[in-house]
Amino acid sequence: MFEAAELGRTLDKETYEAQVAELRTGLLTLQQELSHCDFPVILLISGADGAGKSETVNILHQWMDPRGIQTAAFDEPTDEERERPAFWRFWRALPPKGQIGILFGSWYSDPITQRVENRVDDSGLDLMLKRINIFEKMLVDDGALLIKLWFHLGRDMQVQRIKKLRKNPKTRWQVSERDLAALKSYGRFRTVAERTLGQTSTGEAPWMIIEGFDERYRNTTTATHILEVVRKRIALDPKSLRGAATAWKRLGENDKTILDALDLDRHLEKKAYRKQLADYQGRLSVLARKAREQKVSTIVVFEGWDAAGKGGIIRRITGAMDARSLRVIPVAAPTDEERAQHYLWRFWRHIPRAGRFTIYDRSWYGRVLVERVEGYAAEDEWIRAYREINEFEEELTEHGIVVVKFWVHIDRDEQLLRFKAREETSFKQHKITEEDYRNRERWDDYAHAVNDMVERTSTVFAPWHLIEGNDKRWARVRALKILCERLEKAL
Amino acid sequence: MFEAAELGRTLDKETYEAQVAELRTGLLTLQQELSHCDFPVILLISGADGAGKSETVNILHQWMDPRGIQTAAFDEPTDEERERPAFWRFWRALPPKGQIGILFGSWYSDPITQRVENRVDDSGLDLMLKRINIFEKMLVDDGALLIKLWFHLGRDMQVQRIKKLRKNPKTRWQVSERDLAALKSYGRFRTVAERTLGQTSTGEAPWMIIEGFDERYRNTTTATHILEVVRKRIALDPKSLRGAATAWKRLGENDKTILDALDLDRHLEKKAYRKQLADYQGRLSVLARKAREQKVSTIVVFEGWDAAGKGGIIRRITGAMDARSLRVIPVAAPTDEERAQHYLWRFWRHIPRAGRFTIYDRSWYGRVLVERVEGYAAEDEWIRAYREINEFEEELTEHGIVVVKFWVHIDRDEQLLRFKAREETSFKQHKITEEDYRNRERWDDYAHAVNDMVERTSTVFAPWHLIEGNDKRWARVRALKILCERLEKAL
Q1: Quick check: A392 and A401 in contact, CB under 8 A?
Q2: pLDDT digits (tens, 9 = 90+) for A307-319
Q3: Shortest Cα distance from B58 to chain A (angstroms)?
Q4: What's the pTM?
Q5: Looking at residue B151, what DSSP letter applies?
């Protein structure tokens, strides 16, 4: 794979200087155009030690307008990073739309290092690479342009480089212990790199291998490649990017949904409610302490009809817990920093640290509920979202996070009663808007969307719990009970 | 001080329930109004163990709309937090305008704990409290409403509480080792608390002491207090909040500014430039590595006229460094998340981790430059900013961060030449807009603002370096030299 990058290609000074002026103009013009575009450019810089990765990043910063470019470098993860799923640190560093983000190190470093140091075997590596493929596909599906550059340096060139650096007292310091160690394991590194690139050079995000020995050749090749692919991407009609929507079986008007199976007559008498509520809250508070000690994090998701009583349930949960371990994230309109990112980005922001709880009052399921029904997301976007969400939740659970999802269900009549009641209670009036009445009219569409959502995203690792909500007391105790049981199983 | 909070005040159930309904309505209405206001409410929850802090936070969450309230709790700092000045973690957690942020633990916990555990003496505590006064004043000056609640529990009540909890097997677990230890050092804690409250109960942010023994009394007192002060603050005419602007000595049309003292004829021949540039870049790269090893962070600030050549200098600096240790923050219009915070918030976001560099291309000095000249900041705001900025930079340097500030100076004729040249170079055209020409017309106003800025914010710990910029080569080498010297002194 790397043979073509061991030809010792160089570029003479004159040609180089002529090209640089043109490339710089090109890059700056490109950035201008890009700033009006609705997608980010994610540039991964990987490759062999000494192949000029750091130098290339510097040159790009030198040639481009710093206002549209940012670099993130990934060292050892911090403890805030270690306490979350592995990709959290990369989500933090993704560039917003219209900008170029250079990721130095990126999600390839750790898998490659682990394999080179024999901490995983080939199948372990393959599993990590598969996860990378999934992650990259998701970014690209959302419109991101992913440019993956691999800087290569043959072994002979490595030796030559180190010799040269050591000879000059001014550059000697640049040769570190790590360089010498890397040289020793060069063959091994090369094999692992080949496997990695082979498995992750996908149609949507192919690798570009760049010969790293000659600085001038490296700089112009890198810049030319970036220019070409970004230009091509800008020229593309945005609509042509949309994946063809898979055939989607639509439920008919009278088809039953999964919600029809719920027995909304279930209820609880006041006395029984009081007792059970106290019991479960007691259990929950003990479990929350245990979770904190064992550093097991929990994510609770609440979805449901307007006025279904999500807030009431959430308050019964938080009432049983230490406010210090807990964060409730009410999901409303995104901020502009959030709007400039992938739709999952704003949820990644709030992933809890080890041992804590995050409760999402509405969540990423907005994508396949309101965004689907109201047409805010295109068909291929929400169809794709089921898979993306499953992958996201799998990642959470594999990190050891307990994911508990509730749909709180009421029927149309009950909803109307509650709307009216809210309008009569002064401190609840703000909860009722015209939009709530509008949404009511699309009840069947929403019911179908809920049906599809449960069908496609109720997984072994993150199942949906449907709560009969017509009786508030029943709903609260039921949700508490389920939460306790899920935690007990996990702890 | 605490005697008035040891009266054993209670509230009977009936009165309580009647009051609660009213308080809840009040709080919800208040939140609605607050959401349209241009200031945040910062609610600090402090006090004795067992005085119901956590319970109060839960009640507030239960009574209020979760969409306008957020709680941050402060445990042991994470390593990302430890690598920055002590207040960084609190800046991260400040609520945006129109919302209520509950800070649980807050900036009082650590000083009190340190003093109780005898890790500092009284004067050490006083120093920390003074810093808190400065920080709080800054928040309040910016319009924030700071409510500081101290929950008190007398010693007898403490004993009574623990006895009661231990008797019931269901609540026994709530008594921790920490509670018992706290009981032992109760007298000491009380003395330290009294000193702390005494020194930080300022006119702009007084403490409210709440007797914590009876849950009902505690809840209603807390809610009533919050209602009162927030209502009062909302009712205030925003203009009345403006501090009276101090008499400000304005420079006359023909007064010389500090910039006139610079010798803009200074220049460097090409050959000497090449040599010196290489030398200083070499020195800088060694110093940057050393800084990384010694975990000394550096903040470099660039201010200067449009087209003064800031970008060119920055690129010569970054060109000498490992892109992984460095972040360039180009300061443009704030995002909406930034606009909803104190003006320093968006700079705090980018404070480097240990051993790294952050280069701000324009900075917080915008407050006393463009915002002053163009009238974006009111007079009292920019006058206050000199002090706020000095305090901010002192905090940075006390954490061990090296703060290097450059003003790059050119004269009006040189600027015009450069504007014209830029218009003729295709890849620099985007740098010139009509606004640049508009700003040019206010040259004298800006010169006066620069003069005041240097006069008032060139401190021993963070002095200004004025760079003669008419000759680009001179300016680049000069800035590199100064940066190297500052780093050499610090490392």
Answers
A1: no
A2: 999 999 998 998 8
A3: 6
A4: 0.82
A5: E
What pLDDT is attached to residue A237?
Answer: 60
Distinct helix (H) and strand (E) counts, chain B? 21, 10
The number of angstroms, rounded, from the C-alpha of A479 to the middle of its chain's C-alpha atoms is 28
Give dist(CA A204, CA A181) in Å, integer: 35
Average pLDDT score over residue span B37-53: 92
Our CA-based measurement puts residue B245 at a distance from the nearest CA of chain A, in whole angstroms, of 35
| CB neighbour class for A253 (10 Å; exposed up to 12, middle 13-18, buried from 19) | exposed
The ipTM value here is 0.75
Q: pLDDT band for position B169 (50/70/90)?
A: confident
Mean pLDDT by 10 residues, chain A (491 residues): 82 93 91 91 93 89 84 87 92 93 93 94 94 93 94 89 84 77 88 93 90 93 96 77 58 80 94 96 94 96 96 90 85 88 93 94 96 91 92 93 97 94 75 82 92 92 96 97 96 92
Give contacts of B61 with chain A, Cβ < 8 Å: 315, 318, 323, 328
Name the residue among B105, B324, B328 with its Cβ closest to that of A54. Answer: B324
C-beta atoms of A58 and B325 within 8 A: no
Task: Provide the β-strand partners of residue A207.
Answer: A148
CB contact under 8 A, A426 and B25: yes
Q: Which of B67, B168, B290, B325 to mutate to test the interface with A (most CBs of A within 10 A)?
A: B67
Where b means 16+ CB within 10 Å and e means fewer, B213-252 reads bbebbbbbbbbeebbebbeebbeeeeeeeeeeeeeeeeee
Residue entry with tokens 């009294």:
B194
Residues 187-216 (A) with a CB less than 8 A from some CB of B:
none
Q: How far is CA B186 from CA B27, B47, B118, in A?
A: 34, 12, 14
Chain B residues closer than 8 Å to A62 by CB:
315, 318-319
Chain B: closest CA distance from residue A85 (Å): 17
Residues of A in contact with B79 (CB under 8 A): 78-80
Q: Least CA distance to B281: which residue of chain A?
A: A170
HEC string of chain A?
Answer: CCHHHCCCCCCCHHHHHHHHHHHHHHHHHHHHHHCCCCCCEEEEEEECCCCCHHHHHHHHHHHCCHHHEEEEECCCCCHHHHCCCCCHHHHHHCCCCCCEEEEECHHHHHHHHHHHCCCCCHHHHHHHHHHHHHHHHHHHHCCCEEEEEEEECCHHHHHHHHHHHHHCCCCHHHCCHHHHHHHHCHHHHHHHHHHHHHHHCCCCCCEEEEECCCHHHHHHHHHHHHHHHHHHHHHCCHHHHCCCCCCCCCCCCCCCCHHHHCCCCCCCCHHHHHHHHHHHHHHHHHHHHHHHHHCCCEEEEEEECCCCCHHHHHHHHHCCCCHHHEEEEECCCCCHHHHCCCCCHHHHCCCCCCCCEEEEECCHHHHHCHHHHCCCCCHHHHHHHHHHHHHHHHHHHHCCCEEEEEEEECCHHHHHHHHHHHHHCHHHHHHCCHHHHHHHHCHHHHHHHHHHHHHHHCCCCCCEEEEECCCHHHHHHHHHHHHHHHHHHHC
User: Widest CA span of chain B, in angstroms?
Assistant: 89
Q: Which 64-123 residues of chain B touch chain A by CB within 8 A?
A: 65-67, 70-71, 73, 75, 78-80, 102, 104-105
Give B196-235 pLDDT, tens digit per residue.
Answer: 999 999 888 999 999 998 999 999 999 999 999 999 999 8
Average pLDDT of span B13-26: 92
Can you tell me the distance from the alpha carbon of B124 to that of B122, in angstroms, rounded to the nearest whole number?
A: 5
Residue for token digits 């009062």?
A: B232
Do B105 and A319 count as a contact with CB atoms less than 8 A apart? no
